[in-house]
Amino acid sequence: MKKQSMMLLPLLLLAACGNESGFPLFNQDGDNPIVMNVQDSSNGDPLQFGYTSNTKQEAKDGEGIPGYFIYDRSLLAESIGEMTAMLEDVEEASVLITDDDCLIVYDQGEGMRYDVAEQVYQTALSVLPSYYNIYISDDAALRSDIERFEGNVSLDDAQHNSLDQTIERMKDSPQGH
C-alpha cells in the first residue's frame, strides 16, 4: 500500500500543477490572459472577511503599479437586481451597469413611492463604487429602454445619445436622494 501511495504521489503533484479545469490561460491571440472569477485559494471560503496589510516596500515591489479592481458589470447588475427585488415593496427590478452609470427600473408594490425609491437607491449605493451615478425609475415602460443595451461593450454616438435620453426620462421619477 505504501509503494502504491509513493508511486501515485508524483502523479498527483504533476496533475495539481496543471491549469484549472482544462481552461486555456490565454485567449486565442495568445497575448492576453483570460480573466476569470475564481475563488482565491488563500481565503478558502468566499464568505470569510477579507484582510490585507501592505508596507510601502511591498507595494513598490509590484513595479510601482498598484493593484486594480475589475468590476464584473453583469455580476454587479445581478446582485443589485436580486437585492432590489427582495425589498418588501418591489415586485421586479431590471438593472443596467455601464462604465459609470447604474440604471434601475423597478415595479413598485404598495409602498410609498418616495420611500421605495430611497430604498432602491440605497440598495444600489451599498454595492457600487462611489463614482457611479445611480438613476432609478418606477416607470415600467423604461425597462425595454435599458434592456436594449444589454451585452454592449462600448457605445457609438447614437447609442450614447439614446442612453442619455433614457437617463433624462428616468430623472422624471423619484431618485431616492
TrEMBL record:
Q: Where is the signal peptide?
A: 1-22
Q: Which UniProt keywords apply?
A: Lipoprotein, Signal
Q: What is this protein called?
A: YhcN/YlaJ family sporulation lipoprotein
